[in-house]
Amino acid sequence: MDQRAELSEFLRSRRARLKPEDVGLPDLGRHRRVPGLRREELALLAGVSVAYYTRLEQGNGRNVSTEVLDAIARALRLTDAERDHLVHLAKPAYKKRKRARTFRQQTVRPALRHLLDSMDSVPAFVMGQRLDILVWNRLARALFGDFSALEPEERNMARHVFLAPAARDLYVDWEAKASEVVSVLRMYAGCSPDDPRLATLVGDLSVRSPEFRSLWAAYDVQEKGHGAKRLRHPLVGELTLSYETLKLPDDHDLSLVTYTAEPDSPAAESLRLLANWGADAAAHTTSASRDS
Prior knowledge:
The protein is an alpha+beta fold. It is built from 14 helices and 5 strands.
């Protein structure tokens, strides 16, 4: 990906979403050729010259200081995730430090695999770079689908959400899930712009999904964190689960994602039924394999 173009488009998109009244500036009623703040207004708020900000928005972030980026982030009212994304795009030295670990093989420790297998009542999986789904437990398979039936390169959360027909039925608020996935993928792209597999993923999704193409062009970014998801499963119906995303201490490129239900809730009963169904399905598969 062209890092200069990414920096330019990100700053333009963040400036376009602000109005003068949003940041305490008078709206003089003059005709505006573009939506949002003008460059001159943003430069004034950030305390930098118009020429300096213009160079930055044109993609020239060379030698820009963290202090200036912080001032621009405050002027644009960026979230913490957006501020980090801006730094990733603008500071080459930071990118070089990250680049060393971008292309290595993603592996999951055996002990972590055993941990997932022991979580009988909690759907869980480990997600890596590019939102690749690396390992999962039996209940995650019962809830989200059989990732083992896919080729390794297809085991990816973005591909699951945008290309798997069942995903549109699974997520009650599919649009919100789709927006979240693209925003998290954008965050990763800022850290690893030279990742060829990322470029392949984005290109493929852009061709095959107009929804992905539109969301990618919005330049929204966020970290995957925690919250609640409403799901509609074909076997147990609708259930609301809380999810947590836990960065692994020895490898921050990997995250453990878990889904839990409120104790004694209908969702907890649904998970219990899915766990039993998953165990029965696994036993049937094992038996069939032995008989063949």
